[in-house]
């Protein structure tokens, strides 16, 4: 079985609770410190086995780290791990999941080899909002339900608002419209991408 480590939580001694996103579910497993394992680090993709124990969490065993070159680049890894934390917070109450979430993480890992990491996770975030039917492509103000002007503000979940309705970071409506339609940030400057990234950090 393969999956992405979304979260590790220390328990007694140096054992860990490990949350792993697989093709169809979010697995919570127990890793004993004394067992032989490859690196168990947030954001890593691993191949693993589960040993089921009656009345207890499955034990993580036989792990193999499926590495990417960019994992050794501090900035890329940091951005990726932050995105993994957002994914965990978003999916933690789900058990069965669509394969979409695993596949989007896989796609991000391929893109991180060559693209700006903030752009990669920003575009993934937008695709997730669209998949869940929460991307406001109509660009209506979530506070007054009227169409936004040429300048608009964005809040958590990339909800749109008039500048008069919500005092936040503003963007050109045309830029956001193209971003939502194309799910690519190629037309945006690095400065705008950074502003959007910090809004994304507020969560899904």
UniProtKB/TrEMBL annotation:
UniProt name for this protein: Putative RecO family recombination protein
Species assigned in the record: Candidatus Campylobacter infans
Protein origin, superkingdom: Bacteria
Domain spans labelled DNA replication/recombination mediator RecO N-terminal: 1-70
NCBIfam families linked to this entry: PRK13908.1 (NF010483)
InterPro entries associated with the record: DNA_rep/recomb_RecO_N (IPR022572)
């Amino acid at each position: 079985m393969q999956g992405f480590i979304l979260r590790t939580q220390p328990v007694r001694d140096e054992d860990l609770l490990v949350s792993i996103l697989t093709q169809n579910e979010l697995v919570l497993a127990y890793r004993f410190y004394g067992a032989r394992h490859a690196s168990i680090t947030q954001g890593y993709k691993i191949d693993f086995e589960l040993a089921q124990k009656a009345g207890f969490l499955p034990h993580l065993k036989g792990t193999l780290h499926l590495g990417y070159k960019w994992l050794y680049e501090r900035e890329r890894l940091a951005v990726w791990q932050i995105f993994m934390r957002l994914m965990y917070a978003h999916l933690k109450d789900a058990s069965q999941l669509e394969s979409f979430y695993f596949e989007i993480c896989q796609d991000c890992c391929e893109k991180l080899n060559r693209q700006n990491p903030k752009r990669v996770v920003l575009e993934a975030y937008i695709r997730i909002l669209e998949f869940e039917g929460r991307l406001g492509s109509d660009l209506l103000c979530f506070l007054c339900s009227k169409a936004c002007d040429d300048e608009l503000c964005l809040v958590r979940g990339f909800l749109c608002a008039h500048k008069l309705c919500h005092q936040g970071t503003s963007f050109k409506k045309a830029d956001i419209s193209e971003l939502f339609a194309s799910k690519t940030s190629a037309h945006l400057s690095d400065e705008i991408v950074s502003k959007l990234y910090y809004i994304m950090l507020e969560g899904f």
